[in-house]
Design brief:
The protein has 434 residues and is an alpha/beta fold. It is built from 11 helices and 28 strands. The longest helix has 15 residues, at 291-305. The structure holds flavin-adenine dinucleotide (FAD).
């Protein structure tokens, strides 16, 4: 038996761990095109702000890899020849497989305007992109950021930390409008302004201008121009589905897989940002770009590849992140609709968050401590916790455990309800009872 994994991200590494937990003898080969191998992509934000050294991004030691006992080939897979069960690599070698995992992730949606290929137009996918960004980020210079979701803000924060003049362009009226509500967007925008960021609303870029091949400004739809030294974009991501498409695997926005993470070819699996996975919460196959689900999917795919049939049940998406310095946890379904700043989803994002079913909203708090709950018939469907994180853990358990909240539902929905106190008491009674 020959196991092969394409991609050295968290899904690929987790798959190797799972295979090795069941099979200590057969060979595992991983093929990856990132020269840095496996590292924390969410950690790139903290590397940009200077809070983390690049060495801190690598969660595994050389010893860990020795114990996992797999062969790493640095290279890019160009084709999957399904009838021969071989992979064609960019260095012309062919690698045979019996069980294959595609864990090639997603990439930034390109900015499609004239001038987008000028030096100084930047995106954030890989560690090398982050290093490249830092080469351009100079104190006192001007940066423009376009896009939405978490990565756009991470870019803004990175430039603020490097003492740059930062302009953040929003195509719509507010930040991350299909996940956050108006007040939450305002909290984030207000904090950005306090950090000295200039926000531009309904600002759509039509052209990047340059001199001697380097960015020197941008032009907006309304005709205005803005001089700048760099432009960073995060307008969404696209799953890397080309490889699967070329070999006739079923794809939509991602590679379609069943509950065993198996594609329409029973010997080929897909996991992580590239996979489109059935979500029991919405009844659809959805895309996430979240570290924890990518890891879980990779692990489950590995178990299935090694013969232990295990169904992957997607839990409500959960992300703890920082929005303009404010710790924010997003759980389950919380928003609705489209966001003008993004095509599809962004990094650290989930389609499930905006599949809002019929639900009533209970909210509490002001400024930095804000809690919003999406209250269903008998259960909580989602929550956003901004600032104080005491309730994040209980809420994650209540939502993912589908716990019956009938006893407190009316109180949660009462005008001026002390939502946080009600949840805290409900949880402490549950813990005491169990
Ligand atoms: C800046 C940033 C911030 C993020 N913030 C958060 C956050 O706050 N919270 C959160 O939960 N998640 C966050 N994420 C998302 C999270 O990191 C991803 O969901 C996760 O890394 C996906 O893992 P993966 O293994 O599926 O893919 P990836 O980590 O993308 O790994 C795929 C690998 O495959 C390689 N590859 C692609 N094509 C080929 C090929 N043909 N041949 C060989 N190799 C190939 C790629 O180069 C890459 O190394 C963030 C991501 C980024 C980039």
């Amino acid at each position: 038996m020959k196991y092969v994994v394409i991609g050295s991200g968290v899904a690929g590494i987790a798959a190797v761990e799972a295979i090795r937990s069941l099979d200590q003898t057969n060979s595992i080969t991983m093929i990856g095109d990132d020269p840095h191998g496996f590292y924390s992509r969410p950690g790139l934000a903290y590397y940009l702000t200077g809070e983390l050294h690049d060495k801190a991004l690598f969660p595994r030691t050389a010893d860990d890899y020795r114990q996992m006992n797999f062969q790493f080939i640095k290279g890019r897979v160009l084709n999957i020849q399904r009838e021969l069960q071989t992979l064609e690599l960019n260095n012309k070698t062919e690698i045979p497989y019996d069980k294959l995992l595609i864990a090639v992730g997603a990439q930034a949606t390109p900015l499609n305007v004239p001038g987008a290929n000028l030096e100084g137009v930047l995106k954030l996918d890989h560690l090398d992109d982050a290093k490249h960004i830092l080469k351009f980020a100079r104190r006192g210079k001007t940066a423009v950021v376009v896009g939405g979701g978490i990565t756009a803000l991470e870019l803004v924060e990175g430039f603020v930390a490097r003492d740059m003049q930062v302009h953040y362009l929003l195509r719509g009226d507010r930040y991350w409008s299909n996940v956050l509500d108006e007040q939450e967007s305002k909290i984030v925008e207000h904090r950005l302004q306090e950090e000295g960021v200039t926000l531009h609303y309904q600002a759509e870029i039509t052209e990047v201008t340059g001199k001697s091949g380097k960015v020197n400004g941008i032009r907006l739809v309304n005709g205005k121009t803005l001089p700048c030294n760099l432009l960073a974009y995060a307008i969404g991501i696209q799953a890397r589905i080309d490889l699967a498409k070329r070999s006739d695997l079923l794809v939509e926005r991602g590679i379609l897989v069943n509950e065993y993470l198996q594609t329409n070819d029973p010997d080929i699996y897909a996991a992580g940002d590239v996979a489109q996975v059935y979500d029991p919460m919405t009844g659809h196959s959805v895309m996430d770009s979240l570290w924890a689900p990518a890891r879980q999917q990779g692990y489950m795919a590995g178990l299935n590849m090694a013969g232990q049939k295990t169904a992957y049940i997607k839990s409500p998406p959960f992300n703890v992140t920082r929005l303009a310095g404010l710790t924010t946890t997003i759980i389950g379904t919380v928003g609705r609709g489209k966001d003008a700043d993004m095509v599809g989803i962004a990094r650290g994002d989930s389609e499930t968050w905006r599949q809002l079913p019929d639900a009533l909203t209970a909210q509490a708090g002001f400024e930095v401590n804000r809690l919003r709950l999406l209250v269903g018939e008998k259960t909580l469907l989602g929550a956003i916790v901004m600032g104080d994180q005491k309730l994040s853990f209980p809420l994650e358990k209540i939502i993912s455990g589908n716990m019956d909240i009938s006893l407190i539902r009316d109180r949660l929905l009462a005008p001026n309800a002390k939502t946080a106190d009600i949840i805290a008491k409900f949880w402490s009674e549950l813990v005491t009872a169990n």
